[in-house]
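re: ur question from earlier - yeah i can do the single chain one, its not a big deal. heres the input i used so u can compare w yours
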Amino acid sequence: PQPQPPYAANLPSFTSAPQSIIIRTTPSPQSAQSSSASPSIAMQPGTILTSASSVGVPTGRSINGVSSNTISLLQPPITSKESLTDEDIKLIEEHNRKVRMFLQQRQAELSAEQERIQRQKMAEEAASAAVAKAQQEAAARAAAEREAQARAQAAEQERLARLRAEQEAQARAAAEAERIRRIKAEQEAQARAAAEAERIRRIKAEQEAQARAAAEAERIRRIKAEQEAQARAAAEKERLARIRLEQEAAARQAAEQERIRRIKAEQETMARMVADQERIRRMKAQQEALEQQERLQKLREEQEMAARAAAEQDRLRRIHEEQERYHKMKADQEELERQRQLRAQQEAAIQLAAAEAERAQRLQRIQSAEELGLRYLPGNPSTLSSNHSALSLSYQPEPNLAEDEASLPMRALTIITSNAPESHQQQDSNTELVDAARIRAEKEALAEQERLLRFQASQRALEQQQAAEQNRLRRLREEEMLQAEAERLAREAQERQILRARNEQNRLIHAAREAAIRDPATLSYTPYTEEINKYQNSVTNSTNANEERFGSLNNVRTPEQPRSASSQDVPRTQYNLNYIRRPMTPTLSSSSTSSAKNDSAFKPAKISLQELPPDLDRDGIPGVAGRDYPTLIEIPKTSFSCARQPLNGYYADTETACQVVHMCQMGGVQDSFICPNGTIWNQEKFACQWWYEVSGNQLI
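and the output i got, formated as tokens:
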């Protein structure tokens, strides 16, 4: 049976044909939207239909006077004493509100699913276009291959002609050898056939001799069987004659025993009649005592009924108090759950704001890097995209805690008394008295048994209700524990990932600094100010120059050193991104004196590893672009989604050959970025590296 709402325990009872209850509330815009969005619900908003026949609820009277008969919308409402209370109507309205909320959330989930399907279709169309392009390229390569195959086919035909001539000579020699072998085989087969025919003839002669011997043995066996059958028939006739004699003797003995039994039965009947008369005489004397006892018993039963009614009222009162405590506890739990959800939403909002701020900072840095890259390598812009997935909530109605109990019908006790009207009807009156006493004793036993059954049924119903409440509380505790454990594990995993990423970033920065210290002559591109835009790079061995500028193999500037109070008062100048990269000269130029004066105003840019363009100072990228390594200019749409990933962190997109990397955050927030052309994502080092420097086990 399906679960029922908590207000089912307070519905009125019905004893006649199935009736109906209609509860209508003022339809709200939300209910109208939910009813129009859900075609499966054909009733009006605010109307509840409960049918006992549709959900399989047993009819009858429950433990607290509640009937679960059919409730339909086709009958008029009940306005008598059996109508619903205000509390029940409020519960029903609360239930309808939750149902409407659930339908609205379900509609939102369906719209999100449709949007996801549309995105998948767009991704499939892009993939089909890429496949068509690949097919065209394959067709061009196939044409070139066909020309090469045509030239190779001519040489192959000439070689095959020579091979066919050699094979024909070998075939003629093999045919001659085969003909000689067949002649020898035919001669051997003829000899074997003659030997086989002789062997078969001898076997047939032996089989005929064996058949004659078997026929003779069978004839002798049949003769012996006929003789044995005749002997058995004679013995059977003798046995049947003895059986008939024994049956006749047994019949005579049984007839004699039956006659003796009838005589004994008649004697016992006479004795019983005498005993019955004596018993009836004694029962007459006991009749008055029984009537007095019956009156006392009735009085005691009335007292017991009053006590049971008081106990039943007390039990109903306790049940009502338990229901009130349950509703109060449920309201407290809902309030706690609502507060917890509010706290979770606040935390999610704070985290989302932090992620948005971090994303804005990252976008600003990336824009700066893109402007540098546009100046340094025009035609290779990179873009970022973010995909957000909303949390979906679902409402499930709580199971009904009220359990109905089938009540047992009460049987009225009747006392059958009879008085002897006439002296000639004494025996009939005594028989009626005996029957009445026996019936009364049976009725008392049945009544006691019914009381015991009702008590046991009420005890079982109370135990089931308590067990259901305990199970529900236990499930709630287990769900809370599991949710807390899952949240703790998620937080620990996220903290571990953040710590690992920070350690890796610190290690890379430290390695870059060490490399710059080891090779101070290596210079990276530097944004210049408007005042020193004509500055020429030169090699200097002075200590001040080494402290101000550190070279880096990875084109990374170290953070600026802390300045004194006097140096902090100097106003900052705006950077000019339209810098000029000049070749290195081994000697100092004439402008070195003027540039040294502006060293104090030089402030290196803070650029991360992921925001830098590829190092184009090397002699080209080995390999074929588009075949050995991907060459994307923007982030394509793929089937990757952070909502399907078990943990937060960085994930390389295999559909883009690991050139696109997705960063999954809490709540399904997804940030994507693309590695420069010629590099792919290294999952072990959390950085973009040259494609030939990343092994297969480091991709994912």
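The chain is about 60% helix and 5% strand. not sure if urs matches, ping me
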